[in-house]
Give the backbone structure.
Amino acid sequence: MNELPFQGRTAIVTGGAEGIGRATAVRLALGGARVFTGDIQVRPENSERFAKLGIEPLECDVRSDTAVRRLVETALAKTGRLDILVNNAGIGMVKQIPDVTEEEWDRVLDTNLKAVFLTCKYSIGPMRTGGGGSIVNVSSNAGILPRAHDPVYSTSKGALIALTRSLALCHARDKIRVNAVCPGPVGDTGMMNADLAKATDPQAFADQMIDASPLARAHRRMITPDEVAESICYLASDAAIMVTGTSIAIDGGKSLGVPPKA
């Protein structure tokens, strides 16, 4: 088994400052990749670890065409290639459609869907020139099974799965693989931590998230960012050379349906 499966490859990870994105960036770097992370804000707490691993953090508002193009161009200028793109940046919103403003709709769809369009728009060309590549989109169990409490978020993640499948068909001839992972509930992410901070009873909220996922409930814990990153890195590796257009649910069975009573 190759201990450095990503040796000599260049990777971009959006939303790489924390949670799933950070865990993925670290795993790719440990596997030999030159990693560039793009996030709305560079976090000082990552500086020492990222520097040791050769990870270069860059400020990038993924909703901006100019910012995304700059992110891709920086990776290309410094390494001359692009092999892996992980679209992890995303935000949530719990609100019913009649109460959603146009601005809120645009913010969620622009972050969770338009951003992926932009990164793919500027990454597919270099990947094609380089003889192929792997794109992994971070969707959600909400993209597989829509949820009543967050219809805008569910819509954005369902559309992301559709985009994943379409791009996989379009670019198989270019040896570019496009897949998705669908996590949830994942602890220690920006989204989950924000929800816990807003909850009247954080422990009760965490227990509710855990109980909605059969395996999470059985293990009495949430899924970890590293567990999601493991699947992302599999899809990015040559071990998945014939895998494209798939969506892997990493949700402890949450998207299977209504779990049995405890």
